[in-house]
Amino acid sequence: MLQNSVICVIAVASLTVVACSPTGTSDSAKSASTPETGTSAYYILTHTITDLETYQNEYVPQVLPFIAKYGGEIVVASPDAEPLQGNPEKGVVVLRFPSEEAVRGFVNDPEYQPAKELRIAVTTNANAVLAPEFQMPEG
To answer: Could you tell me where the DSSP H helices lie in the chain?
Structure first.
């Protein structure tokens, strides 16, 4: 199982570079926040993947164009993260977007809904949140 998890993370990471950095530059390594859009926002998903093959081979290729469409980048994608407190799901995805509006656009994009339904079908116990990037209070 661990061997499949490592392969999945590598596959997701390599696909991210292609999908989220179409120019082939290191732009995806830079912060998704820009002066025009303000503070970055994060889509944080935890779940248990019940069909890793379908998730990896069907869902991931379908979702990548939507992440790129909304200026997102994959920060974390692991089907087997190490729990440090409590009993969380081991599957974790963290996506950074240029704004909260971009996260909402991604999640609610009508063309993304079939891919989202596929993800829901091959996972259990999914929880997703939108969180703004932390800004140190002035003063």
So the answer is: 2-20, 52-54, 60-69, 100-108, 113-121
CA distance 4 to 19: 22
Rounded to 10°, the helix 60-69/113-121 angle is: 140
Query: Look-up: residue for tokens 């963290």?
Result: 94
pTM equals 0.74
Dihedral sign of CA atoms 63, 68, 71, 76 in order: positive
107-120 residue pLDDT tens: 999 999 999 999 99
Provide the residue range defining the domain that includes 41.
2-20+35-132
Q: Residues 123, 49: contact at Cβ < 8 Å?
A: yes
Closest CA to 88 of 62, 52, 125: 125
Q: What's the CATH code of the domain at 92? A: 3.30.70.100
Q: What domain count does the chain have? A: 1
